[in-house]
Amino acid sequence: MIIKLHLLNLEHIKRKKYKTFEEKKKIIFCLKKNQNQNKKKKSYLWAKKMEKNTRLKQARQNNRCCLTGRTKFFLKQFSFSRHVVNLHAFEGLLQNVKTKSW
């Protein structure tokens, strides 16, 4: 199994961007809901902030397998893809997991 390091690094960068985006979004909504500011000032601030944030688009988050870097069929319990879970379960490396064979 080959670890796709470049994909994992890209995912790490995306998660950082997502975190900063969420922080900015919270600040903007607090500015919008602030009752002490008059309406013109509030709408101006809101328009400016949203203008800047349209450039920072929300990064989509994908869960990736720790060993293979696969995104499809990711199991959150183990943080592995189904292929790796199947292999580990068959070898008996996962606790409380039984394999069925007929």
UniProtKB/TrEMBL annotation:
<dbReference type="InterPro" id="IPR018271">
    <property type="entry name" value="Ribosomal_uS14_CS"/>
</dbReference>
<dbReference type="GO" id="GO:0003735">
    <property type="term" value="F:structural constituent of ribosome"/>
</dbReference>
<dbReference type="GO" id="GO:0005840">
    <property type="term" value="C:ribosome"/>
</dbReference>
<keyword id="KW-0496">Mitochondrion</keyword>
<keyword id="KW-0689">Ribosomal protein</keyword>
<protein>
    <submittedName>
        <fullName>Ribosomal protein S14</fullName>
    </submittedName>
</protein>
<dbReference type="GO" id="GO:0006412">
    <property type="term" value="P:translation"/>
</dbReference>
<keyword id="KW-0687">Ribonucleoprotein</keyword>
